[in-house]
Amino acid sequence: MIYMDNAATTPVCKNAYEAMLPYFSTKFGNPSGAYELGRKCRKDIENARETIASSIGARPGEIYFTSGGTESDNWAIMSTMLNEIPGIGVPHMITSKIEHSAVMNTCKQLEKYGVEVTYLDVDEYGLISLNQLKSAIKKNTRLISIMYANNEIGTIEPITEIGRIANYHNIIFHTDAVQAFAHVNINVNRSGIDMLSASSHKFGGPKGVGFLYIRNTVDIEPLIFGGGQEMGKRSGTENVAGIVGMAEACRYRINNLNSIMNREVQLRNYMIDKLVANKNNREIRCSLNGHPVKRLPGNINITIPGKNAKKLVEELNRKGICISAGSACSAMKDSSSHVLKAIGLSKEMAESTIRITLSENNTREETDIVIKAIMF
Ligand code: PLP
Fold first, then answer.
1. Considering 181, 226, 235, 250, which has the largest number of Cβ atoms within 10 A of its Cβ?
2. Above 70 in pLDDT, residue 172?
């Protein structure tokens, strides 16, 4: 099998796998337990919190473990937006037209409750306009939620500039960094980020666990109520194995981030060159979607005119190759991608678009096999 759908999910890395094993046997204690078995698990969770916090320049007390990216996005947005602003009324928020459905559908739900949402356009590369952002700010704007990097086209948004604008206007800045965390260098202080969502299974950790960074100056209500775990903000017995596995995956990636990024960029550029320059086949003219430089190291999103992406994905599947037509989260739906529409692709072009997302474990040989399978 050749796996090139790492934006959908990643295999659990060896370090994370091994670190998790004891929690399925001897280390089974409840971290709230008042005895050694539980206390050890509590200590392991706190170590994991430190690892995650230091990877983004945060403090341990600013990291809250959740069930993944979707919960983190829902929590950050719902809890910030549901209360009225005293003396002003219903709050307003700004997001973009290319957010993941975890953000998009949360905003749609909030609109049903009367919250005002502005959806910013993006340019042909998928970048928001900072001027448009500035002009969208109103006196009741409480939140800006813009993704760090897009899950389909890989474009990295101008996060530090957005943070500066948000901070200047005293608006909370949340970013969905599910595709970016542990893939590119992130520092919440340098970029003025107040809340950041991440998900373990996108960087070599297990599924069903993630975190929300909440700056200690931001006070948001819990989304999930119960026994008061996670400093009273996110109840439920902790997923100890998942949290420890996520932290190990994070440690591995952060310690090796520069070499991982270099390797992925090299493979990515090699594939883009072959597919888009298309020297081997003059009949088909592929085009790259997303920004040529401001993009995730492993992301390739290309349109191949005349090819049906879904059929191509199925053909490749029969050859043991895993890639995606659009994002995995929308692959089950029949509608074409809102992201490709937002960057100006027609429905026909969108339906001829595939996404290849590489990891540092892919080889040059694998890329050659996949290029051949796509083009011939
Ligand atoms: N946000 C983005 C940008 C994503 O790519 C994904 C998953 O694909 C999510 C949120 C949802 O994360 P999770 O699968 O952990 O719920």
1. 181
2. yes
